[in-house]
Amino acid sequence: MGGDRHSVTSVRQARPAPGTILAIVLGAGVPLVFVGVFFLWPVASMIGRGILPDGVLDLSGFADVLARPRTLRLIGLTLGQAALAAVITTLLGVPVAHVLYRLRFRGRRVLRALILIPFVLPTVVVGVAFRSLLREGGPLGFLHLDGTFAAIMLALVFFNVAVVARTVGSAWEGLDGRQEEAARVLGATPGRVFLTVTLPRLAPAIVSAASVVFLFCSTAFGVVLVLGGTRFGTIETEIYLLTTQFLDLRGASVLSITQLAVVVLVLLVAGRLRSRSGAEKGRSTPVRPTRAHIGTILVTILVAAFLALPIVNLLLRSLTTKNGFGLGNYLALGTTGSHNALVVPVWAALGNSLTIALAATALSLVIGMSASLVLSRRPRSRGLRRAITGLDGVLMLPLGVSAVTVGFGFLIALNQPPFDLRSSPVLVPIAQALVAVPLVVRTVLPALNAIDPRQRESAAVLGSTPWRVLRDVDLRVVARPVLAASGFAFAVALGEFGATSFLSRPDRPTLPVVIYRLIGLPGGDNFGMAIAASVVLAAITVLVIALVERLRVGTVGTL
Amino acid sequence: MSNGLTVENARVSYLPEEGGAPQLAVDGVSFGIEQGEVLALLGASGSGKSTMLRAIAGLEALDAGTISWDGSDLARVPVHKRGFALMFQDGQLFPHRSVSENVAYSLARSSKTVVANRVAELLHLVDLDGYGDRRVTALSGGEQQRVALARALAAEPRLLLLDEPLSSLDRELRERLAGDLRQILASTGTTTIFVTHDQSEALAIADRVGVMAAGHLVQLGDASDVWRHPADAATASFLGYSSVLSTAAPLGVAPFAGELALRPEALVVAEDGPIHAAVLSDSPTISGARLRVLVEGVGTLEAVSLGEQRFTAGHPVRLRLDETATARIPVAS
């Protein structure tokens, strides 16, 4: 018992016991090494290729690449497209947030969950859904929107409305409704109440949601690649094309660096705007809908129809074959497609996807959990605390950097010693785990932070060793969040397309890669197969996310 | 056709947060208030008094009954067109606006100089001269409530509604502000309904008092009348009467149809008092002692003694009844 007694006092002393330091080093070391090798090193080599082509600082590559009219047009297009999508999404999402979070009606919980579906759909699926809706012969083919800027815009808005509705909605739910009442009783019209009382308090959430949407849209890859054709694209799709079609690695590097700069800038601006005013922690009672709410209700109905249309159409279209209604498209998933479009049957690709996603989930859980345990500690030493804040920042980096950049970085960094993994099948799950780790941390860490440190202290005072404290206090609390995080990680890994499209080997493609391939060779049964495969992928994703939603842990809306 | 506000048979229910059947908060309440009058709605928490106030403001819809102003029904008049003002318990000042911007909130349509003059005038009225440029978050609780009062008065409401305006403050401040409030309401001639759970506050500020319990208005009348003649035993005990006796004969009171309510100071120790009792316990107060005594034929009552004499348990005492500290409650019909 002597050892236990010693650890009791060590909890209460300023200096941590040697065991604590060891645990922190191990807990922080594993994630740091992982992020270092598989993120910082690839990104650094990519930057190096752009500005240090022969080991000497040379910025002429920037001048070359950025002077190309096509590059300039695409950068402008990326930014303009993202800005426009963010504005439209916000304008539509705020009324939806009002209806779903401030009005009281039957079924609003179900609606809140349903509205999340477009957001969790894999990007390739969204692309296919809009192609199938808008192409010649599709239900909206008469609009001739296939391959236009408008089609991309529709898909981006479709994808992101939930981000605005949920972020703004949960903030709105937390606003103390009596502020509005005070204004109304003082004679303010409903419009003035909104502008002078509600909007100023909602602004941080709106700005935050809009900047997240801007970020998602400016790094959009799968959707744009499927819908953009040759005329439209983003920096992302251009990096992909330069790498895979034109083998212009230097040009791709320059674009990746440009992209990185844009992302960091947006994150900084958004962070500043957000921290300017703290969130309110009140609660409001939702009200029964009245005639005064007709405007927002109408917008919500229109948005709901807009969100449902591509999904319903995708489902119906998947059951339509040349010979009428039937399961033909699903049966064809056992083949390699018309004109031998694929190397393996679609079902085999699904098997690959599931295996890889499972591996990625396990990997991201190990990394994310050990990181969360370290991040949740508040050591007394100021140096250690700073180190922990730094670790938090490093781990969030992959969230801000596009998947294409990660995939591209892998290609150029990990094909030479000391990390020659080019032909190794582990690259894909590692890349997917990298994208999922920030999600795991963001889901598990809040639960750990909510533990009263006195619980750990009292367990220790009662004679528990530090490991037992960890097991009895920390791990017990995070069981549900960890389960939820596994679901998120799995869904994200399953639908991941940006990095995977670079890294997956031809003989071992994942489902999104196969869908993209099928839609690129639309002859014969291929388009129908792409749609059926999309439905399968979407169904699995939605199922996993629905299970996660039932756990009612902090949600994707808090991204 | 009556002037001012008329509430007739008002009923308000609300849906509980976590689902379930609607709960009745206000049930069959009727009263009126004349121009310039100050009415207090007094009741324990959960008695429905705040819900009644919110319904008058238009923040809650009536399930049944009417609320009208000068004879015209307000049911279809939205909150912002009623010309009333409501001051919340915790002020609900707008944190992103300065003191003067808060006060000026309802003056949006006036010219700048008019607004500036009016704000200065109101800040003077609530004794906050020169506070205009301060942030409301930097004010003390009492100052915030004064700003909230000035903001509510700015619109010159035809009816001012105050929801527990002083109860978030500490006691000393509360007593001082109650006096100020009465004076401000009188000097501006503002018709006012205010809700409180504090009887002394109601007595200090209001002309008339309505007592609410379990969603009903159980009594309404001039403040002093309500104190002298509580409607029933529950009201009496809420108003500070410590015991209600069904028979008062042992205390030497001539029989009457009803019950006798006693305040603690109704029984006073007196050497030649007619009532014989035994002391159960005593606790010193500033002016003497408060006793629990056993009166033969009645039971345990409270009594006071003036002076420095202390009593031990079992000590016999003689008491005299001060009828001004009693109230007669008519039999419930």
Tell me about the biggest sheet of chain A? Answer: 2 strands, antiparallel
Q: Average pLDDT of chain B, to the nearest integer?
A: 87
Termini gap of chain A: 45 Å
Alpha carbon gyration radius of chain B = 24 Å
Strand content of chain A: under 5%
Uncertain spans of chain B? none
Give the oligomer, counting copies of the same chain as homo and different chains as hetero.
heterodimer
Biggest sheet layout of chain B: 6 strands, mixed
Mean pLDDT of chain A: 82
Strand order of the largest sheet of chain A: 1-2
Unreliably modeled segments of chain A: 1-15, 555-559
Order of helices and strands of chain B: EEEHEEEHHHEHEHEEHHEEEEEEEE
Can you count the beta strands of chain B? 18
Count up the helices of chain B: 8
Q: Encode the helix/strand succession of chain A as letters.
A: HHHHHHHHHHHHHHEEHHHHEEHHHHHH
The chain pair forming the largest interface, with residue counts per chain, is:
A-B, 22 and 25 residues
Class computed from helices, strands and strand pairing of chain B: alpha+beta
Helix content of chain B: 10-25%
N- to C-terminal distance of chain B: 31 Å
Shape category of chain A: globular
**Strand pairing plus helix content of chain A: what structural class?**
mainly alpha
Structure description:
The complex is a heterodimer of chains A (559) and B (333). With 559 residues, chain A is mostly helical. Chain A has 24 helices and four strands. In chain A, strand 1 (320-321) and strand 2 form a beta hairpin. In chain A, helix 4 (69-102) packs across helix 14 (294-318) and helix 19 crosses helix 21 (466-495). Chain A is globular and about 70 Å long. In chain B, strand 9 and strand 10 form a beta hairpin. Chain B has a six-stranded mixed beta sheet with strand order 6-7-8-3-9-10, with helices on both faces. Chain B is globular, with a radius of gyration of 24 Å. Chain B has helices at 49-57, 99-103, 112-125, 141-154, 171-188, 199-205, 223-228, 233-238, and strands spanning 5-14, 23-33, 38-43, 64-69, 72-73, 84-87, 159-163, 192-196, 208-213, 216-222, 243-245, 258-262, 267-269, 275-285, 288-295, 299-306, 316-321, 326-330. Chain B has eight helices and 18 strands. Chain B is of the alpha+beta class and 333 residues long. In chain B, 24% of the residues lie in helices and 33% in strands. In chain B, helix 3 packs across helix 4. The chains are: A mainly alpha (559), B alpha+beta (333). The interface between A and B is medium-sized, with 22 and 25 residues.
